[in-house]
Design goal:
single chain; Rossmann fold; alpha/beta; about 325 residues; 2 domains; 11 strands
Length: about 325
């Protein structure tokens, strides 16, 4: 039970005495059995069916002692409720994620496609960055900011989930996507500002060149990590579009401008990565997560709420009741 995790004992070693309780119970009933066997009656028909409240109460008498003793031992161990408070000081990192939404991201060399796999891994990454502000920019033939920098990661994950190809004019405007992200970061007061740019193609659209956007990123202190997604060789991907909007698939050659991606990253102090399958993509995000650690200072304060009193009261009440009953209505002759 999760609520038990908030409790601890000041004198836990005293709980070892609880092991004696079942031994006392066993010994009591063994002795009682031996005494009962030594009493001889001519017959027992006269006592058949004679059940009254005194008989029932007499059977409960030993249990008043057993439970009372157990409760007293728990009270001696001093159970305490731990009320823990944390003061967190985090020097967060501002992160803009840039996602390619060109039609080639529907290629099926990742299951079920590159975009779905990229969205899943990006969402997992967001969940790990508890104290960071993260935003999202998207691009195809043009670019825009899908989500500004925010600490509301639930909102951000909702935007990631809603991403789909076809929302923008088709193409691959890498420079535009990077520029949109850098524009969001340039006024950030954070000491660490990074962009994670994911694409599967070659820059062929937009009015801002990728290296120009990289130069701007360098000037404003933004580090860029670039990721190329796609198998090596050929992959089944959209090659045309029907009048009803559905894509026609065929085998196409995978082309990623790795030289450009490398140049963008190295010029800003980042790194370029190539992911040819889902597990590699997951490892890349894990590696970036390790490289860009948020500085966190956590001060833990503990307060204790004593809970032994209730066990002490229960134990005393049961033992006193047993003593009173054994010396009044259930008194036996010596």
């Amino acid at each position: 039970m999760s609520w038990l995790s908030n409790y601890e004992f000041h004198n836990p070693w005293l709980l070892l005495f609880l092991l004696l309780v079942p031994l006392i119970v066993v010994r009591y009933y063994r002795q009682k059995k031996q005494i009962t066997r030594s009493i001889q009656f001519p017959h027992t028909e006269a006592f058949a069916g004679q059940k009254n409240w005194k008989n029932l109460l007499a059977k409960l008498m030993p249990w008043l002692f057993f439970i009372g003793l157990t409760s007293m031992l728990i009270a001696l161990a001093r159970p305490q409720q731990v009320l823990q408070e944390e003061e967190v000081k985090a020097e967060g990192i501002d992160i803009m994620m840039v996602m390619d939404l060109s039609s080639s991201m529907l290629a099926q060399d990742f299951a079920p496609d590159r975009l779905s796999a990229s969205k899943k891994v990006a969402t997992d990454f967001v969940e790990k960055r508890k104290y960071d502000r993260i935003g999202l920019a998207v691009f195809a033939g043009e670019s825009y900011t899908q989500c500004p920098l925010t600490t509301d990661h639930q909102v951000l994950k909702g935007f990631l989930e809603s991403l789909q190809c076809g929302l923008l004019e088709d193409g691959t405007a890498i420079g535009m996507g990077l520029a949109s992200a850098v524009n969001r970061l340039k006024e950030s007061p954070s000491k660490s500002k990074i962009v994670i740019l994911l694409t599967d193609g070659v820059n062929n659209s937009g009015y801002i060149k990728p290296l120009t956007a990289a130069e701007i990123a360098k000037e404003v202190g933004v580090k860029v990590y670039t990721i190329g997604v796609g198998t090596r060789g050929t992959a089944r991907a959209p090659i045309s579009k029907r009048p009803n909007g559905q894509f026609v698939y065929g085998m196409t050659r995978v082309q990623i401008d790795e030289e450009l991606m490398n140049e963008i990253s190295s010029s800003t102090g980042g790194q370029y990565f190539r992911a040819v399958n889902l597990s590699q993509l997951e490892r890349i995000y894990d590696y970036i997560d390790e490289l860009e650690k948020t500085e966190i200072e956590v001060n833990v304060f503990k307060r204790y709420n004593e809970k032994y009193r209730i066990f002490l009261m229960v134990g005393l009440i049961l033992l006193v009741c047993r003593w009173l009953l054994s010396n009044t209505i259930l008194r036996t002759l010596p």
